[in-house]
From TrEMBL:
Keywords: Cell membrane, Membrane, Transmembrane, Transmembrane helix. It comes from Lentzea aerocolonigenes (Lechevalieria aerocolonigenes). Residues 5-90 form the DUF3817 domain. The keyword Cell membrane applies. It is found in: Cell membrane. It holds the Pfam family DUF3817. The keyword Transmembrane helix applies. This is Membrane protein.
Length: 100
């Protein structure tokens, strides 16, 4: 279980960082007509988010999270800064032994 939590923590941070990069790339695309960053960062974020989903579901099954808690953690990778907050909450609740 510790390995699954560590994998989740790493992917939550990685997805969060790439989502922020994706937001910057989107601003550059529309404000400065520099779409080449979007072409690189977009697919990378999409691939990493898919891995985040698999790792999150794996952890949810191992820790017996509720469907609502699982869905909220899965959506955290789509809203800037939310994956960092979700990672902290998951670690806190796991340390206390409280299911999500």
């Amino acid at each position: 279980m510790k390995g699954a939590l560590t994998r989740f923590r790493v992917m939550a941070y990685v997805v969060g960082v790439f989502l922020l990069l994706l937001c910057v790339a989107m601003v550059l695309k529309y404000a400065a007509d520099m779409g080449q960053f979007m072409k690189v960062v977009g697919p990378i974020h999409g691939f990493l988010y898919a891995i985040y989903l698999v790792i999150s579901v794996d952890l949810a099954l191992k820790l017996r999270w509720s469907i609502k808690g699982t869905a909220l953690v899965l959506l955290a990778g789509t809203i800037p800064f939310l994956s960092f907050w979700a990672e902290r909450k998951v670690v806190e609740k796991t340390a206390l032994g409280v299911p999500l």
